[in-house]
Fold these 3 entries.
Entry 1:
Amino acid sequence: MAASAGPEIERLISLLAKLPGLGQRSARRAALALLKRRDQLLTPLSEALAQAAERVKTCTTCGSLDTTDPCAICADATRDASLICVVEEVGALWAMERAGAFRGRYHVLGGLLSALDGVGPEALRIGGLVSRAGDESVREVILALPATVDGQTTAHYLADRLAGANVSVTMLARGVPVGGELDWLDDGTIAQALRARRPA
Amino acid sequence: MAASAGPEIERLISLLAKLPGLGQRSARRAALALLKRRDQLLTPLSEALAQAAERVKTCTTCGSLDTTDPCAICADATRDASLICVVEEVGALWAMERAGAFRGRYHVLGGLLSALDGVGPEALRIGGLVSRAGDESVREVILALPATVDGQTTAHYLADRLAGANVSVTMLARGVPVGGELDWLDDGTIAQALRARRPA
């Protein structure tokens, strides 16, 4: 690609291009930005990556990422241990935390069931969820999975698997998102929001 | 932002968010992708950055980036030393090299003159260019600067500064880009392409 750039820069570009959201062109721009701002950006990023590689681990209880195991959320005694919120990935857990509306614990599946991609139940953190749900302190499992085919397939499968445990299994409401203009919403969302209408 | 993620991940996200093309949200996605693929991505990237920080330097002749000084292009005796192609930044040099149509040497200005951003001639690598152009082996200086107001201001200024040297000063042709549909071109490009028309 940039034959003149030398193998070190080439390698940096090809690694940056593997990040989600960065293609070959934006990886080149990122590499140049890094090389232009060595002390403020290149060296700190290199060190932050090395530190993350060394210190961040997966929580053996919930599957989240943290420097401690159990993670800060699982270890936090002020959080409601009777609620488990099931999410696809750590990114969804962070989104829930930013929303600030949930004070229970989490369970990170590590993906969704997908016939197309050949992802079966054994590839996900499902056994651990079922055993956690079996604990008598747990009252409710909230399935906060995406409103996609794979998300809904996974939710149905989990509801089946959790049927034996003494917990209620719920899922997030569907409807018009905050700030959502009806003009811009897809038909499925409008139909679901209409079906689930409530007194004003 | 992601209060639950711990300071190491927070720091990684905030550094990634400083890269061009990555915002807060895509930096989070990138951080998760890195943490999911430690051995294939996180550790290699950390090492590639450390190596780049240590080994990549600026060529004191042309201003390009390489692990050697002079850079591989300035040191390449098979390249035509009578041609100097002036570019704004190293990214433009890489683009010229990918096009594979130029076999001379380069001069990286390190920016463009800009009254708005307060960038004057002293902030750019202009003295070095004038002194290189004064060498009797140099016959032509090609200004490969962007077709923007700042690019054209800089080109005019450089043409003035180089007037004393015994070189012809040229610039890239303007016209319809390859694959360009007239429907999608701006009026300025169409007008320039029409003015510079040539026999078919």
Note: The mean pLDDT of chain B is 91.
Entry 2:
Amino acid sequence: MNFIGAEHAFADANVVLFGAPYDSTTSFRPGTRFGPSAIRTESFGIETYSPYQNRDLETDSRVHDSGDIELPFGAPDRALDMIEARANEILAAGKVPFLLGGEHLVTLGAVRAAAKRFPDIRIIHFDAHADLREDYLGVKLSHACVMRRCHDILGDGRIWQFGIRSGTRDEFAFMKAGHVVSEPFSAKTLSSLSFPNGTPVYLTVDLDVLDPSEFPGTGTQEAGGLRFAELHSALCEILTRFNVVALDNVELSPALDSSGRSTALACKLLREELLALAS
Amino acid sequence: MNFIGAEHAFADANVVLFGAPYDSTTSFRPGTRFGPSAIRTESFGIETYSPYQNRDLETDSRVHDSGDIELPFGAPDRALDMIEARANEILAAGKVPFLLGGEHLVTLGAVRAAAKRFPDIRIIHFDAHADLREDYLGVKLSHACVMRRCHDILGDGRIWQFGIRSGTRDEFAFMKAGHVVSEPFSAKTLSSLSFPNGTPVYLTVDLDVLDPSEFPGTGTQEAGGLRFAELHSALCEILTRFNVVALDNVELSPALDSSGRSTALACKLLREELLALAS
Amino acid sequence: MNFIGAEHAFADANVVLFGAPYDSTTSFRPGTRFGPSAIRTESFGIETYSPYQNRDLETDSRVHDSGDIELPFGAPDRALDMIEARANEILAAGKVPFLLGGEHLVTLGAVRAAAKRFPDIRIIHFDAHADLREDYLGVKLSHACVMRRCHDILGDGRIWQFGIRSGTRDEFAFMKAGHVVSEPFSAKTLSSLSFPNGTPVYLTVDLDVLDPSEFPGTGTQEAGGLRFAELHSALCEILTRFNVVALDNVELSPALDSSGRSTALACKLLREELLALAS
Amino acid sequence: MNFIGAEHAFADANVVLFGAPYDSTTSFRPGTRFGPSAIRTESFGIETYSPYQNRDLETDSRVHDSGDIELPFGAPDRALDMIEARANEILAAGKVPFLLGGEHLVTLGAVRAAAKRFPDIRIIHFDAHADLREDYLGVKLSHACVMRRCHDILGDGRIWQFGIRSGTRDEFAFMKAGHVVSEPFSAKTLSSLSFPNGTPVYLTVDLDVLDPSEFPGTGTQEAGGLRFAELHSALCEILTRFNVVALDNVELSPALDSSGRSTALACKLLREELLALAS
Amino acid sequence: MNFIGAEHAFADANVVLFGAPYDSTTSFRPGTRFGPSAIRTESFGIETYSPYQNRDLETDSRVHDSGDIELPFGAPDRALDMIEARANEILAAGKVPFLLGGEHLVTLGAVRAAAKRFPDIRIIHFDAHADLREDYLGVKLSHACVMRRCHDILGDGRIWQFGIRSGTRDEFAFMKAGHVVSEPFSAKTLSSLSFPNGTPVYLTVDLDVLDPSEFPGTGTQEAGGLRFAELHSALCEILTRFNVVALDNVELSPALDSSGRSTALACKLLREELLALAS
Amino acid sequence: MNFIGAEHAFADANVVLFGAPYDSTTSFRPGTRFGPSAIRTESFGIETYSPYQNRDLETDSRVHDSGDIELPFGAPDRALDMIEARANEILAAGKVPFLLGGEHLVTLGAVRAAAKRFPDIRIIHFDAHADLREDYLGVKLSHACVMRRCHDILGDGRIWQFGIRSGTRDEFAFMKAGHVVSEPFSAKTLSSLSFPNGTPVYLTVDLDVLDPSEFPGTGTQEAGGLRFAELHSALCEILTRFNVVALDNVELSPALDSSGRSTALACKLLREELLALAS
């Protein structure tokens, strides 16, 4: 079973979906492991055509869905290695890897692969939470530390954060010290963001950046988030204006939303991202 | 059990509620059959007075609630005939039929009755979905085709659509070709809409036009919808500015919203529509 | 995606699963359309090995899962034709069709196919409800009439019912008149049931025959049902003692059981039936 | 809306249903106020015919459903007075009042009325909890004290309890001292219970006497309860062998059981009691 | 277990939290009794640091959490006395009592205590409902009458209401007659509100003033409410601009929101209020 | 917050409760991390008195509740070390450690501590699943391998399993080869089990040994389990007849049971075990 419209063979595709159904380090309510399969199953409830972009997955995109990696719960080191390996294979074939989480920690595997291939890569990060802790209860490979681990790899001034509205005083001090560039609460400065021509970009979207009223299906909900329309236009802008070489959507936890609208939104957003990538 | 405040006898009423608890052609998640009874039961949780309009159902309206039609599941032809017959009885008595769905297909029964009596009728249609398919898996009497079937009856330029944000490429092409008039995503052009004096209007409101955050209790949720305040003011405008001779609210599926707020919203909106009709 | 362990090609299999995700005539709470896909997805939560029978789907069975038929909602005639056609193909290839519902009406399609090929076929029927109405609200192709329609085909004395504990006075009178053979409330007489050697048998299991405490995930729950252990041993006996040429499991409605145990039970029972068939 | 089959006028009936949607003293999870309306609405999912008793509500009973009393939340004294008044009216007309709770406190209103009219009345009580506290947090009119309040009226040796499996040490000491007659955990001694001919009996059934697997829809669930079949046969025996002059079923809390089977069971049990009363 | 960061001893604190888990007069769906404990338990899912105010509960506030009062269900008079007594103790110690409901009736206990100590007190009231009925089904101590009871104490022109969007015609007439000052639907006039220097203010926040999309976890949901950002900034303004001497947050009913986001929002808002109070 | 009646200081207690809220290796549906806190919170819904044993936690037991260990998600090695350390402290003080899971892997920490102190210890194990895999997806520290890891420590013939009804062919072969002693499906041979006088016993109860109808709140449900009454009497027998030096109850996943009865049952069973231990 693949995501709707993602029916190209690997060889023919320019974008490759892969799922990392992993949530072992989730500190509050687990369940994101069921995100990728929910997205595939429920994708048959949406259309392949986007009236926003006037494009259709069936005719205007070349996407392969390579399914989920079977990851060992309780062994984050090995899980990250497996994710990095898969992302690397896709990058090596000259294609864009699109990772579906799982908890946010999985991003680290894909970023490692992308940073090896594109040493000057930048990260654009949407999230309700800063994820900049040095460690969480002594554990360094935790969802709550994932952007700090990315910073370990990339160094200062390479990560742009939007929509952050929760964190410790230390995490916000880390932002304010300029280690990362952050626009808390919103994403209004995106239009003025520019990179040197062709700069490779990794885009990571923790879906809890959305307001919990529109996206309750996530483990740690923070009131006061972005609306779908805001996130939709921000992502379309990024995917058309920048050279996104790898990306992910993470933290959908389907069972926490009995109405199903969070999964439906995640499917719709994924369609829009795939079509914007194809433009 | 009747809708709160709808306690007039048929003979004394100028508006007549009737329910069509039918969802046999629903292609995704069924359950709208429970819409009409949920609206009646939960209506006792709202007030009869509207502070928006400073009117009260008990003193300012004359509404009869004629209950639900017992429809045969799995036999859409007969179900539509029964709905048409009931709508016809109400129209024949010089009253306004107000149909509560049920899936959107039920609209077709009421439109047939209204179009026979008012051949120059226009339809104003609020929905997330175009519902303009020629057929769905070979079936022509499907919720996904209902506005196309209405177009079969009325012809070009007689249907106005607001808020549509999902459909196939073909359906959007049908709009763009001018067969129907459509404002996708929103309802901002409503204020400039005008008809010749006294033109009869059928108003059909698929409640999934609302944003799923405000109205999760529906089978096929589409992010990016109208807010309650927008829909409320649009409907009040239509009901006071135009000659609405028949109308419906459809696609509430109560069990999909465990919080109950979708049914509560549907009750409140119905009160507001009844009071606007009474003005 | 197939049922766990059902990985043989059609040509190599002796049993063929197929799903009929249909519930358009359901008169109370719909949702059985999601039964077949839930069974496939959740089957990966059970083992392929049965400690009850000391057999393993991977080594001791030859099952092909041919997926679901895409059925048109709201058109029961055509749906039954499509089910009959699929069952016929499987029977024509000398294999046993195993139908997964969907509502109980789908049984009629498979029974038609089986009765044409095996004119002397008997039906063994487990259910909480008699399903012997002549019609339901004037509709003859309804889940509530399915065994009556089977009786129309087979005539008197060819249907054995177990576990029935709900019906109208007329339905129970129909049983008592001997048109069908019925043991209400339980299945204790099964051990004394015998047929002439090689008599072909159709086995239909409406899972609501189980007690709602063990199987809440069905639309019309009747207290006082069979326990899993009783149904399990009854089905194993039937499948090893009789010549079952076609069979079905119907009426799982996954969303009505938020705990998921109904789907888990349905998966386990299906494994046990497949292994008993293979003995 | 009435309970299915309870369509006789008051004057023609010999049994009169009335609801007391009250739960203000519930100490754990409230919600039984929704019990009576759920029973009425969902009763249309069961048949009027009982295959257990071969009787049908439509032809073999004469029941009037007088609807719910609108009780003031937060004022138990007044609520009990209103319940007593209604029960008294029914008794005065020579009919059997059948009260639907609500929390167990409501029983006290009906017992007061019955004890005035039948001073030698006995109570047969099914429950998981003893309900024999002298007070609860200083409050005497509490669901946790209802049988103690009944004992205040009737005195020693007039109350028979079955199925009790929870209480304080003091409550069990009260039983052991013989103030009430109690068979904890089960109802096996019922068959040996006898009263002088014609002794009036009040039957009160707290539905949480059932095992929570079969009846999860109640506020305080106690594992190890009666099975439906046990309670069913016990109640049928009581209603046919004794002179039951008033009775109640209490403590259904529909929203706590998302599967709906608790309400379905309550409907079925009520049908069976009405038919046994009619024998 | 205390609210996160509220770890000061009573003697050291300037603000004292206390819970009133009471909902006996709730007329629709009860459950607010579980509000205070849910807020404490779930508070460990939020941070103590506020990026909105750049303050941290751990370093910038002095809050004591005195736990819940054990209130007798079904005895509102006694419950209010107990609440008043606790509020009085806190006020007598020169601290600010912060009451967590429970239903809105509990406010009356705290207002009584505050009005005795500060006879010239004003009330600022956020709510979807006017709560200005003279009585409800004959009961004067009801959640639906709580602001009318406050008016009985304070008299005309002392209560300011924001966000009201539901009530009877009589309640809105009471507002229009000037007995209370009301801005229906919104809170835009707050910035122009001013009191004589040092005027003591009681702030009562019925959380159902929020839009049900953001806060579904409450018993009587009214579409068209305030957004979190609006309420957040309004409360921060009040708490920094006025002399708030006592306050409450009421009507969270956690079980009505299976996603948990309502409780999460209530925790976040409480943190923000405590930090604004500390400024 | 402690378990009801567990109010002794550590020094005065003979039994010490401690929670291990950990589920990082859960392979299907996580959520057991919330088990210990749910048991504590909901324990206030049961009585301290047992009518089964005529004992009361308040007067007849000496239990200390030492709360939960804060375990690092995603680091099973460290988590097990922390659990072992806590169990060791309790054993070193001459008390019985009673561990509340969490997933079944946590048992390994407590068994390690107990086996060091009591080298001749036996394990009695109740479970639906054998948990005897050598590894799971290459991981050895997994819930699915926990009894195999215990066997690694203790060797052949030291583990008795009851109620197992699911496993791979290899796991059942491991049993049949005599490495562990197993009674699949039931616990009828328990009465004939005897050990040399004073033999130390570790008792581990995976609550999914219960039938899912009585205990749906667990991640991997297997139909055909033990009834509460069976498990209750088995555990009381073990705790009174054998020298149980350490024990655990694991695998309650509260959120999977929206009715709450699984947590209620777990509380009641824990009370019964504590009282049987105290005899």
Note: The helical segments of chain D are 35-42, 57-60, 76-92, 107-117, 146-154, 169-176, 228-241, 261-277.
Entry 3:
Amino acid sequence: MSLSKNRLKYIRSLKEKKYRSEYGTFVAEGNKLVCDLLPLLKCQMLVATASFLATTDTSNIDEVIEVNDNQLAQASFLQNPQQALGVFFQQRAESTEDVKDQLVLALDGIQDPGNMGTIVRLADWYGIKNIFCSHDTADIYNPKVVQATMGALTRVNIHYIDLADFLNKNKNTPVYGTFLDGKNMYEQEITPHGIVVMGNEGNGIRPETEKFITKKLYIPNYPAGQETSESLNVAVATAIICAEFRRRS
Amino acid sequence: MSLSKNRLKYIRSLKEKKYRSEYGTFVAEGNKLVCDLLPLLKCQMLVATASFLATTDTSNIDEVIEVNDNQLAQASFLQNPQQALGVFFQQRAESTEDVKDQLVLALDGIQDPGNMGTIVRLADWYGIKNIFCSHDTADIYNPKVVQATMGALTRVNIHYIDLADFLNKNKNTPVYGTFLDGKNMYEQEITPHGIVVMGNEGNGIRPETEKFITKKLYIPNYPAGQETSESLNVAVATAIICAEFRRRS
């Protein structure tokens, strides 16, 4: 098999959500990530160098295309392509709406692919199995998100839902959110289970989401009251919150 | 003033460290960031839309160039340019080598500009005034780093130094680092002051740096022992560590 113009066009089209949804596939790149995903997800097409293919079991892959570094660079979305690019079939998250016995995240319009992928990766670290995202949150299959998850996307269920509707259905579950006018999280009671809402990078949590929040938390800066950055990066804030929930549970 | 070809070429050249070092300047973009920096740093050139200029005090700026959105896009390093691009003079970090009465970060080859900027931003949040970086750590004046700091770069001193030499000079200070084979950080004694070393995204802390580390910490995953992501993003790990140091001090 060679990397025909049509195949190249197909791969490049997967940068756009429209085409990813149409084909039900997505791109993952790099020696390590591709190797991690191959046993877990059905691979439609593997574009890789001879040295990668020499050490990889490709028996379950629909189409295997050996390329040199220049050809790989043409297909790649990375600045520094690394040996392999896989087109994988998307994995549908199992539908889960009842979350009362677990800690879950709800993302209200996270835009940056790097933040999104980093949040999925840290959710996996902290044993968070479900993330509920508003429809305008970055797509888990965006190539930049996929790379930033470092493979965690196979271990965390990502649900794109109507967030207000989801929170309304879980009214008996504690809902946490971080706010600059919230209360010091180290001095607040927190439950081991519940929903932690994280908001958009620029605008935070939407008013229509905020009304479902039962406890507003503040991540204290140091020293208290000192003038500092006005906020933390959203992935960083998510990490600090998740670490604290798990430390106390 | 108009945006001449020469000025455009000058601005675009500042994407490269070589030219930033030669001219001693760097680029910051966006309405909010430029407004935050204007009172703090000497501005050499401001390229901005009429609406931005109408509400901004430009009296101390060497050169003010009014542009429309298309012209701004030609100069900008952002995907979505926003009203203003400033060329500012770099601010030299004051030389500090004795760090015994403070908490500082040491970065051992952090590569990703987004991670670097995010770390500076969270250091500011946690009142960390000095960050010591190996010479191969991402440049603080890289446009992507500048944007990710969200202005924190004026409040944190960033030192590029020989890391082994720096750690050798601070042998009486506790030096912490995160390792997958470290000890649960919640069960370890930690001092309010000390040096926290964070390593490169792919390779972690170098062996020649590791030998100076007096306490290896592990950020516990959850549930303990469960198979999860192999590691956390470095900015996320830095955040969790800094939060814990500050919580306990």
Note: Chain A has ten helices and ten strands.
